[in-house]
Amino acid sequence: MLSQTALSQNAQPPYEVATWPSFRQAAISYTFDDGCPNQFKVAIPMFDEFGFKATLFMVSSWVTSWTELQAVAANGHEVASHTVSHPNLANIPLQQQIVELQNSKSTIESHISGIRCLTIAYPFCAPGIDSVCRQRYISARGCQGFIEPKTPGSYLNVSSVPCGSLAGVKVFDDFKVNFDKAAAANGWCVFLLHGVDNDGGYSPIASAELRRSLAYLSERKGTFWVTTFANATLYSKERDAVKVSEISASKKAIKLQVTDTLPDSIYCYPITLRRPMPQGWPSAKVTQGKRDVATRVARVGATAYLIFDVVPDAGEVKLARCSTPAIPEEVAGSGNEPNGVKR
Questions:
Q1: Do 101 and 250 meet the contact criterion of CB atoms below 8 Å apart?
Q2: What's the mean per-residue pLDDT of the chain?
Q3: What residues have CB less than 8 Å from 263, skipping those under 6 apart?
Q4: How many Cα atoms occupy the beta-carbon half-sphere of 339 within 13 Å?
């Protein structure tokens, strides 16, 4: 949705930064704890079917198959920390907290190639000492039961909504209530799940209800960004830190500077920008450094917007005039939903 409520205002006009990628209204993250059997046998294949990615918070000492987790991670799902032994962090001393957070991270990274373990979920929803977490992770999941705004109150205790037989979200209609709330607030809805069907996991969710929720989101990909806990963290932090400004402009080309102050070794997630098509330009090509950037044009009311994703601090961004006219996406209804939003 290309409404003003879906924008972060860290850019020099006429540039605007999307609250969520491609100007979607909300972010949705499904997070699974403890590595229950049907998470792998039932849930992950379901997410793959719909083209969505989930987060698996693993207790490192409970892992029975690193090969299975390697395959899950290679397919784009997030494998993250749920500590070494699942203690209540609030009840253990500082040094033990350090061991639980550091060793779970290092164990996951040593067994699964090509990933960085960036996030953690607190066992029993009990946060530990902030400084211990902050030194090792970019965000941590709690379970306060509410939907976060576009920027969480604390990345070290991001709220989640518990699901399953012992929680408030049991059936599809419960999921949908939270989808609607997140979209209305341009917020971030994080679901917390354990067991799936009768696999012995805590508070199991019925796979049929989980599937209904994913099918609903699959039909509304223009409204909801279904993504991992880490990716939502990366995007929201970069979105709030990014600075966009023109450094030169002519009738044929415009050059942009897109920067932030975050560590580039971690924060390199593409940020969605838009601007009205420059006057007299039939269309445009966007590049960053030597790389072509995918672009699209969407008409909002009487204005045709050029929309593109770029990575902060990854090189100069250039918009070049093209002579071939672009055909803007036509939007029904109010004219501010370029993704063909279904309600």
A1: no
A2: 93
A3: none
A4: 22
Q: Give the residue carrying structure tokens 């400084």.
A: 131
Tokens read off for 322: 């093209």
Q: Which of 45, 73, 46 is nearest to 228 (CA)?
A: 73
pLDDT at 226 over 50: yes
Burial 56-74 (b: 16+ CB within 10 A, else e): bbbbbeebeebeebbebbe
Q: Identify whether the C-beta of residue 160 lies closer than 8 Å to the C-beta of residue 192.
A: yes
- CA distances 288 to 268, 278, 294, 305, 312, Å, are 13, 18, 10, 19, 10
Residue 332 in this model has a pLDDT that exceeds 70:
no
Q: How confident is the model at residue 10 (pLDDT cuts 50, 70, 90)?
A: confident
Higher per-residue confidence, 35 vs 337: 35
Euclidean distance between CA atoms 81 and 161, whole angstroms: 18
